[in-house]
Specification:
alpha/beta, Rossmann fold, 5-stranded parallel β-sheet, nucleotide-binding, cytoplasm, Phosphopantetheine adenylyltransferase, Cyt_trans-like
């Protein structure tokens, strides 16, 4: 039986913290889908198509990882693709407070389990929104994002 999981997020942009969680999750499952959420109401730094590209480029050394975009409920994507596990990275207690009820709701709706991976300490302060802010003011974010993002921001 193939073990499939999904690692959802906005990834605007993908950070080294995201890559750490994705890499660790890729080691736990046969197939890992990195699902980039598309919310038409939100204007991001990168389009959803660009984010899919950046995630795919950043994960090219992980052969069992596929980057896709999705809209709607994550559990519907799980049902359509035969995915039984959602993997989420958590940096702080605030993340845990947000993710825990969502994990319970997803399990209740469809039986999909959620694995919450604590971030590596060196990435616990890195977020896409901070990267966007630093970059927006011309700051150097090369220590926080993979090369494809650095290149695209330049």
């Amino acid at each position: 039986m193939v073990r499939r999981a999904v690692c959802p997020g906005s990834y605007d942009p993908i950070t080294l913290g995201h890559l750490d969680v994705i890499g660790r999750a890729a080691g736990m499952f046969d197939e890992l889908i990195v699902a980039i959420g598309h919310n038409p109401a939100k204007k991001g730094r990168f389009t959803v198509e660009e984010r899919v590209e950046l995630v795919a480029e950043s994960c090219r050394d992980l052969p069992n990882v596929e980057a896709i975009q999705f809209t709607g409920l994550l559990v519907d994507l799980c049902r359509q693709r035969g995915i039984g596990t959602i993997v989420k990275g958590v940096r702080t207690g605030a993340d845990l407070t947000y993710e825990f009820p969502m994990a319970q709701m997803n399990r209740r709706l469809t039986g999909v389990e959620t694995v919450l991976l604590p971030s590596a300490p060196e990435w616990s302060f890195v977020s896409s929104s901070l990267v966007r802010e630093i970059s927006g003011y011309g700051g150097d974010v090369t220590a926080f994002v993979p090369r494809p993002v650095v290149d695209r921001l330049a």
